[in-house]
């Protein structure tokens, strides 16, 4: 397990053990220049058959860095010496996948709707969870607005996201939090991905949300990022909005996140051919889990 941070996430360590991996070896403060030597030391220490018993997990806190490291890992393989790699920085890829999959499920349950052409705002959208959710939703055809305190930081995140998904349609745009009042009445879906304990969608704003269909929040620490949304909510009515809005709380999303990460870690262990997982694969796994439970 490789991370650019000084510590490896205990959450990810526990997830690996729970998925059946016997040994977890942490490597911290890793830079891109370290990747090739670490990967090749790992793959050449076992034969082409034994190498299947090794996998690489990429943590850290930076979405772009993790994707770049994933590419570096893949480029460092020397067939038939290859191992599987899974990037999930700060759990952002699997958390975002769980949130979007749950919202997609809610839309389908409400008059068989989809993400296509829906207007989505991402509160706290400059962080790894928010920006990943923005990319997933944009790839599904939604019009996504990343929101934050600083317009310049939001715009930089938008440019990165559009570049990473190669989006010629530019379905992701930026707005400051200060402009939320002026656009909330045009929004179909809210993703709340701000830091724990920060409420970004207030009671008065909820009352203006005339078109709001689904509101989802990944924050489990009070207060909720969305006024009136309980952490246990799983498509329960959200009373303050004038429309028939349903809410999806952090624990409902967290369950899908957990199952998604568990599934991908287990698949890495069991696969006969190397796999390279990131946010798109996480979303597919989250969709499959949600569909199975529907």
Mean pLDDT: 94
The SSE string, one letter per element, is HHEHEHEHEHEHEHEEEHEH
Q: Uncertain runs with pLDDT below 50, 5 residues or more?
A: none
CATH structural architecture of the largest domain: 3-Layer(aba) Sandwich
- Which fold name corresponds to the CATH topology of the largest domain? Rossmann fold
Give a description of the structure.
Helix content is 41%, strand content 14%. By secondary structure, it is α/β, with parallel strands linked by helices. It folds into two domains: 10-91 and 257-282 and 289-293, Rossmann fold, CATH 3.40.50.10280; 94-253, 3-Layer(aba) Sandwich (Rossmann fold). The strands form two sheets. A seven-stranded mixed beta sheet has the order 5-4-3-6-7-9-8. The protein has a three-stranded parallel beta sheet with strand order 1-2-10, with helices on both faces. It starts with 9 loop residues before the first helix and ends with a helix. The model has no long low-confidence stretch (mean pLDDT 94).
């Amino acid at each position: 397990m490789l991370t650019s941070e000084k510590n490896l996430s205990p959450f990810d360590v526990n997830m690996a053990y729970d998925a059946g991996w016997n040994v977890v070896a942490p490597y911290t403060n890793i830079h891109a220049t370290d990747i090739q030597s670490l990967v090749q030391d790992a793959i050449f220490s076992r034969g082409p058959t034994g190498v299947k018993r090794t996998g690489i997990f990429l943590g850290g806190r930076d979405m772009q860095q993790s994707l770049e490291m994933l590419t570096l890992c893949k480029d460092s393989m020397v067939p038939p010496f290859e191992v599987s790699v899974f990037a999930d920085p700060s759990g952002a890829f699997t958390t975002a996948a769980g949130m979007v999959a749950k919202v997609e499920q809610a839309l389908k349950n409400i008059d068989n709707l989809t993400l296509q052409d829906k207007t989505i705002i991402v509160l706290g959208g400059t962080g790894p969870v928010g920006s990943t959710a923005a990319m997933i939703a944009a790839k599904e055809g939604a019009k996504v607005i990343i929101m934050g305190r600083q317009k310049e930081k939001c715009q930089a995140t938008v440019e990165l996201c559009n570049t990473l998904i190669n989006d010629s349609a530019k379905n992701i745009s930026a707005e400051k939090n200060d402009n939320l009042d002026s656009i909330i009445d045009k929004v179909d879906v809210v993703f709340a991905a701000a830091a724990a304990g920060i409420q970004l969608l207030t009671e008065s704003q909820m009352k203006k949300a005339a078109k709001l269909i689904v509101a989802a929040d990944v924050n489990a620490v009070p207060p909720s990022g969305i006024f009136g949304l309980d952490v246990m909510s799983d498509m329960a009515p959200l009373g303050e909005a004038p429309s028939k809005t349903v809410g999806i709380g952090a624990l409902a999303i967290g369950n899908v996140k957990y199952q998604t990460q568990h599934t991908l870690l287990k698949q890495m262990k069991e696969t006969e051919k190397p796999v390279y997982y990131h946010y798109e694969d996480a979303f597919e796994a989250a969709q499959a889990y949600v569909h199975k439970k529907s």
